[in-house]
Design the sequence.
């Protein structure tokens, strides 16, 4: 059994390269030279870095690699991420059977059939946002006026959270997802959002509605803190991921005019195009983290119990062993093997909703804005390299 060099190759997260859509060059080089290798995390602690599709898929489906962030050796990608581990745990940071017990309470809410029933309502929201954005104007910030409010409105509707509080929870989310947020700021934002959702949960006992929070209260299996933690996870993940994928997808299409024209000519190809954009962009650029619970031999390397693992799904989704010419955007590609939503028992619960929102967002924008274009130089676009969820801070467009 071979042993990888113990000297870390670089510190995670690595510096970005010249292409803002691609993973940092250090990760891409690691995939070629040492696909299972040692790195240092932000605080100097060691971890394994995995970059190949095959290896990452194996780890994410192997119960010997734990998602329990309270285990010694669990790798955190920032001080803020480690701080988020304190307090009421969320089920994505648990292992079965507790993970499965809590996840089952939400599975029915995000089944494909139930999500598809939301399509007319999501389309109505998208159209109304676009009506407002385009009324009497020829330009706007797509993030602020469309990409961010669309999933925010939808997740508020599903959870039973008042949308008028969106500026509050979006600001808390930004603090929680910044890699460079101070521990003090993360503690404050986490406390504010937790208190808000626990108070909201308490109101559902006397003023129930048709939202997920009310149904969790009605089940009677969880206390207020547990429901609040679940709501916090769904609220933050439910708007941040889709908002950033929407804006980044539009930018990628504008930078690939032949691909954009193909999609305009073939609107029926939007669902497949969404899968390719998910693969190509993979907005979780910091990777998925696990810790080994026992010694595991993987790809000719022994990973020992208690050692952390960072799975770079962004490089896995460009692995040429799985996707020919993986660094190219090809909307005709069958990209369904991508790992943008993870893999195994912890894969993203809300992926049917994310797909629905992305399909509607892209179809509506391309159909209603045939002259859609950037209103600024590409070089002036500010990318979210400091965030755990990648994207752009704003996207100035014209039509």
Sequence:
């Amino acid at each position: 059994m071979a042993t990888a060099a113990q000297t870390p190759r670089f510190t995670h997260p690595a510096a970005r390269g010249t292409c803002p859509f691609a993973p940092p060059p250090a990760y891409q080089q690691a995939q070629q030279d040492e696909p299972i290798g040692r790195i240092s995390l932000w605080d100097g602690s060691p971890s394994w870095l995995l970059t190949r599709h095959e290896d990452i898929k194996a780890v994410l489906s192997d119960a010997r690699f734990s998602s329990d962030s309270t285990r010694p050796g669990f790798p955190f990608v920032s001080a803020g991420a480690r701080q988020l581990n304190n307090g009421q745990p969320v089920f994505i940071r648990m292992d079965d059977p507790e993970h499965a017990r809590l996840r089952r309470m939400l599975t029915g809410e995000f089944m494909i059939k139930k999500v598809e029933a939301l399509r007319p309502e999501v389309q109505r929201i998208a159209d109304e946002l676009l009506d407002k954005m385009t009324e009497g104007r020829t330009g706007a910030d797509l993030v602020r006026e469309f990409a961010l409010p669309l999933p925010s409105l939808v997740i508020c509707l599903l959870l039973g959270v008042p949308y008028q509080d969106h500026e509050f929870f979006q600001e808390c989310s930004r603090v929680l997802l910044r890699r460079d947020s101070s521990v003090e700021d993360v503690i404050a934002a986490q406390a504010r959002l937790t208190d808000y959702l626990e108070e909201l949960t308490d109101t559902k006992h006397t003023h129930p509605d048709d939202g997920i929070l009310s149904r969790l209260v009605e089940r009677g299996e969880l206390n207020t803190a547990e429901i609040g933690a679940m709501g916090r996870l769904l609220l933050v993940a439910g708007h941040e991921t889709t908002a950033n994928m929407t804006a980044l997808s539009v930018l990628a299409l504008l930078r690939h005019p032949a691909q954009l024209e193909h999609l305009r000519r073939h609107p029926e190809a939007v669902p497949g195009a969404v899968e390719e954009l998910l693969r190509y962009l993979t907005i979780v650029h910091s990777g998925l983290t696990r810790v080994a619970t026992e010694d595991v031999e993987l790809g000719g390397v022994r990973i020992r119990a208690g050692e952390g693992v960072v799975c770079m799904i962004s490089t896995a989704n460009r692995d040429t062993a799985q996707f020919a010419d993986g660094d190219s955007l090809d909307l005709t590609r069958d990209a369904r093997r991508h790992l943008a939503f993870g893999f195994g028992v912890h894969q993203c619960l809300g992926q049917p909703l994310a797909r629905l929102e992305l399909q509607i967002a892209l179809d509506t924008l391309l159909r209603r804005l045939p002259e859609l274009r950037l209103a600024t130089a590409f070089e002036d676009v500010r990318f979210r390299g400091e965030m755990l969820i990648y994207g752009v801070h704003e996207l100035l467009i014209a039509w």
Notes: The chain has one domain: 25-398.
